[in-house]
Every structure is written in C-alpha cells, then in structure tokens.
Amino acid sequence: MIGVFDSGIGGLSVLAAVARVLPRSDFIYFADTAHVPYGDKSDAYIRARVLRIGRYLAERDCRQIVVACNTATAAAVAALRESLPRIGVVGVEPGIKPAAAASRSGRIAVLATESTARSERLARLIRQYAGPVRVDILPCPGWATKVETLKLEDPDFADAAQRLLEPVLAAGADHVVLGCTHYAFLAPVLEPIVAGRAVLIDVADAVARQCRRIAGELGEDTGETAGGAASGRLELTATAHPERLHRALAVLGPESLAARLSGPAVLAAV
Ligand code: DGL
User: Is the CB of 270 under 6 A from ligand 1?
Assistant: First the structure.
C-alpha cells in the first residue's frame, strides 16, 4: 500500500503520475481538507499535521508515503523520515534543477505558496541547483484555495495570474516552475499566459520515477515483469468534505484513477 497525501486535492496531480508507473499498487489518497491551505500556516503547524498523517498512513500499512505537497515537504519531510525510519518517504520539491538546466535566458521563475516561498529548503535548492541562473520566487496566496473550489475558469483569476507573471516574462524568464502541486491543475490557465515565452515545469513524472524505484527496493510488484490488466485499488480519505474530494477526482483526475476507486471517499478524524 502506498499513501499519497496533500493538504487537499493538489496531490491528485502527483497521484496520477505515480499510479501510471505503478499500475498494480494499491493507494490511499489522503486530503487534509479540514486544514487546507497549508501555505499560510506556520512550519510548526504543518509539521504537526504531517507527523499525524504519517502515523495514520503507517497504521494503514503503507510501506511508502508520498508527501504530494511542496509546502509540507519543505516544512516537514525531514521530521517525517525521522519519525518513520522503516517507511520509504518521497517528497515533492519545486523543479529548480530541470528548469535552471534548460534555461537559455539565464532567468527562471517559481510559483509557490507563501510558506514554500520563504522556506530554507527552497533557498537551499536554489543555491544547490540554479548556478548562475536568476530565480524569481513568486508567492501565490490564495491559489491553492482557488483550485479547491474547482472554479478554474474564473477570468479574474486569469487576470491576476497574468499580472503576477508578466513582469518576469517581460524580463526574460523562460521557465516557470509550478512549485505547488495544486498549480498543475491551473496549467490550462497559465499555458496561454506563458505561451511562446516560457515553459511550465512540473515534477510529477520525476516523483513517480522515484516512487517506482523505492517500490522496487521494497519488493513490491511494479507491474514491469508480468502482463495483464492493472489491478491496483485507490481509496480516498479526507479530514473534511470527502464528497468534494470524490468530485474533484471526477472533474480533474484521469479516468484511470477513477477506475481504481474502491468506493466513495471516506471521512477520517485524523
Ligand atoms: N499542494 C500544496 C503544495 O504543493 C499545498 C497548498 C496549500 O495547502 O497551501 O504546496
């Protein structure tokens, strides 16, 4: 069993990629919707939530846990690894490395929650991987909450995104890193803004490859050796409004995820 969690529905973008490369694995997707968004909370608050959710997923027999949230990874992945030493913990970090490596203009931008934007982990990632490339960090308060409402075609939002991005695009940024898993679902709004000038960078596929590697090390059936239909199951769990999580999967998720569902989303008092 693999546990994938986020503050809300953003991590479904990561789950989709992981489930694609591990067709036979069983998943629990856990959305901490009673506490979303994490992006405006303190590190201590986020860490307490992450450790609690990690314990819950470990009790549910998860041998691998994917922190499908940049904010939770920045604030608490080290603490989670320390508290669950026998579990394979995979975090999600903004794709600074691939964006900087591919940049021709020497300038990139990263869209992130307020918490990730001010985190030491992001600062370290930039020091390690950006080299001479200039990185503009753009905090995006309210964006994750916007995704949670599933009202992605709001023209006011498109205007706000345009206003935020225009200065860095005009200054030559040629890659825009989606530094929050919720923002993958905003790609249809962001693509037309950056079109012809910059490329959006999402790390979900790289995270999925890492999960498959760990699943192999744990001796799980990675679906590589035998043929046949996918048989993995998916359970949806939320700390509030499980029906919204279920609806989000129907609206946002690929059909392959919906086909794995073992039943309606359940409420968990975690
Ligand atoms: N999806 C999350 C991330 O990747 C968190 C969004 C939020 O809860 O603020 O950062």
Answer: no
> Would you call 109 helix, strand, or coil by DSSP?
strand
Distance 146 CA to ligand 1 centre (A): 11
CATH 3.20.20.70 fits 96-201, yes or no: no
Please check whether the two domains, 2-92+204-267 and 96-201, share a CATH topology. Answer: yes
So what's the pLDDT on residue 228?
Answer: 52
66 ligand 1 Cβ < 6 A? no
In the reported structure, the alpha carbon of residue 116 is separated from the centroid of ligand 1 by a whole-number distance in angstroms of: 9
70 lines ligand 1 (CB under 6 A): yes
Average pLDDT, rounded, for the chain = 95
Give 169-181 pLDDT, tens digit per residue.
999 999 999 999 9
CATH (residue range 2-92+204-267): 3.40.50.1860
- At 123 the pLDDT is 98
Q: Is the CB of 232 under 6 A from ligand 1?
A: no
Mutate to test the pocket of ligand 1, among 4, 5, 6, 252 (most ligand atoms within 8 A of CB): 6
Please give the structure tokens belonging to residue 83.
């508290």
Q: What is the pTM of this model?
A: 0.95
Cα torsion 10, 12, 17, 18: sign: positive
User: Where do runs of H (alpha helix) occur along 93-179?
Assistant: 96-102, 114-117, 120-129, 143-148, 155-170
Q: How far apart are CA 21 and CA 220, in angstroms?
A: 12
Is pLDDT at 225 greater than 60 in this prediction?
Answer: no
In the 3-class helix/strand/coil scheme, how is 226-268 assigned residue by residue?
Answer: CCCCCCCCEEEEECCCHHHHHHHHHHHCCHHHHCCECCCCEEC
Question: With bands split at pLDDT 50, 70 and 90, how would you rate the model's confidence at 108?
Answer: very high
Amino acid 253: pLDDT: 78
